[in-house]
Design brief:
The chain is 43% helix and 14% strand. By secondary structure, it is α/β, with parallel strands linked by helices. The protein has a 6-stranded parallel β-sheet, sandwiched between helices. A 6-stranded parallel β-sheet has the order 11-10-9-12-13-14. It has helices at residues 10-21, 33-40, 51-60, 98-110, 127-138, 158-163, 175-184, 186-189, 200-231, 235-243, 264-277, 283-306, 335-344, 357-363, 373-377, 397-403, 418-423; strands at residues 2-6, 25-29, 64-67, 79-82, 115-119, 144-148, 168-171, 195-198, 315-319, 348-352, 368-369, 382-385, 408-411, 427-430. It folds into 2 domains: 2-198, Rossmann fold, CATH 3.40.50.720; 234-443, NAD(P)-binding Rossmann-like Domain (Rossmann fold).
Length: 443
């Protein structure tokens, strides 16, 4: 089948590359000429494991191409996907749908023959209805259907998520559109992937509900972590104990500094605003948003407390800046709240992240960026493990002790074992586990 993918951001580029790997002919369209030139040259503008090779293979096979011109692509397309950004709107936090509606108008002007127009972007309930109105007003005689097909891609494992998903959700009442979508996802039927056909409104809400529920699980275990610290319990064991219950599940029960990224923060806020406008407020999600915002700010206080109540004049090493490992995404990362607070308190911050420093430099200009983690910790008064990249999971503790001004670690991902760190002579602080006083430093 022939597919046009509007938008070459995270969702559009990954989805376009994966559809082409299924054997479809895919053209990715973006108004950013520089980005399209880079893609044509084989440069991938985002970091996602395996994406560079996947794009290169399908470009070479002639199934994937890139252009800035939408009009020539639409007439031949069986499906046109809208995968543009829907950032939080300034002022009210509602999803900014201007890019979606602009894409709909441009598609309408180029329609020729039956086409399924698919919203892949995360959009509030009712967006599909408005897209249909826009297209019908611009092209009253056109033959088309509107479908919702939300993405459920995790940064760092997006290709696997697309090719082996838990489910595919398609919202449309048109049997003809369902036929097109079945054919697009036909390779997944071989793996017996559940494909759920619903109304557009239901499909749109499923995406928000899923992200809000996961954000709630994260926030719940973070609150349990605070309780564990207060009563001397271990949040790791609490997570295991409740996660082994099949009704709860083990995923997203890892205590930390709060959720961030491109989805959870903006999607929870958008759901809250949608629910308020509909007169059916989501009190739980409202609390989740508030608690998470507060948590990221309080993590700086936790670091200052571990440092003795003041960080003025101290050098703090930060390991990891992105909101999670295996991505270069800095959007709403906890580091964006924590580091400015430390600097405001008088600390000098040195940092290293394997993939996120280019973007971090734009957002955190007052940080000294290092070539690796050990350079960051050299002479530091404390090291903060903020993102659990694999290379930070097995640090050379003897080297840390030798090169730091003092062996103080604040591990906001609880990667290490408190008793073992204490035995190694570290003053080790983590999330949701009791602080074990350090043993005498080994000779």
């Amino acid at each position: 089948m022939r597919v046009a993918m509007i938008g070459t951001g995270y969702v559009g580029l990954v989805s376009g590359a994966c559809f082409s790997d299924f054997g479809h002919q895919v053209v990715c369209v973006d108004k950013d000429a520089r980005k399209i030139d880079r893609l044509k040259a084989g440069e991938i503008p985002i970091f996602e494991p395996g994406l560079e090779d996947l794009v290169a293979e399908n470009v070479k096979a002639g199934r994937l191409s890139f252009t800035t011109e939408l009009a020539p692509v639409v007439p031949d397309a069986d499906a046109v996907f809208i995968a543009v950004g829907t950032p939080s709107r300034r002022g009210d936090g509602f999803a900014d749908l201007s890019y979606v509606y602009a894409a709909a108008e441009e598609i309408a002007s180029a329609l020729a023959g039956y086409t399924v127009i698919v919203t892949k972007s995360t959009v509030p309930v009712g967006t599909g209805r408005e897209v249909e109105r826009i297209v019908r007003a611009r092209a009253p005689k056109a033959e088309f259907d509107i479908a919702s097909n939300p993405e459920f891609l995790r940064e760092g494992s997006a290709i696997e998520d697309f090719k082996r998903p838990d489910r595919v959700v398609v919202g449309t009442e048109s049997e003809r559109a369902r036929g097109v979508m079945r054919e697009l996802y036909r390779p997944l039927y071989l793996n017996e992937t559940p494909v759920l056909f619903t109304s557009r409104e239901t499909s749109e809400l499923i995406k928000y509900a899923a992200n809000a529920f996961l954000a709630t699980k994260i926030t719940f275990i973070n609150e349990m972590a605070d309780l564990c610290e207060a009563v001397g319990a271990d949040v790791k064991d609490v997570s295991r104990g409740i996660g082994l219950d099949g009704r709860i599940g083990r995923k997203f029960l890892h205590a930390g500094p709060g959720y961030g990224g491109s989805c959870f923060p903006k999607d929870t806020i958008a759901l809250v605003r949608t629910a308020q406008e509909a007169g059916a407020p989501t009190r739980i999600v409202e609390a989740v948003v508030s608690i998470n915002d507060d948590r990221k700010k309080r993590m700086a206080d936790k670091i200052v407390s571990a440092c003795g109540g003041s960080v003025k004049g101290m050098t703090i090493a930060i390991l990891g800046l992105t909101f999670k490992p295996n991505t270069d995404d800095m959007r709403d990362a906890p580091s964006l709240d924590i580091i400015p607070a430390l600097i405001a308190a008088g600390a000098h911050v040195r940092a290293f992240d394997p993939e996120g420093m280019n973007e971090a430099r734009k957002l955190l200009p007052d940080v000294t960026y290092c070539n690796d983690g050990y350079e960051a910790i050299r002479g530091a008064d404390a090291v903060v493990l903020l993102t659990e990249w694999n290379e930070f999971r097995a640090l050379d503790l003897d080297r840390l002790k030798a090169e730091m001004a003092r062996p103080l670690m604040i591990d906001l991902r609880s990667v290490y074992n408190p008793a073992e760190m204490a035995a190694e002579g570290f003053d080790y602080h983590c999330v949701g586990r009791a602080h074990v006083p350090p043993a005498t430093r080994k000779a």
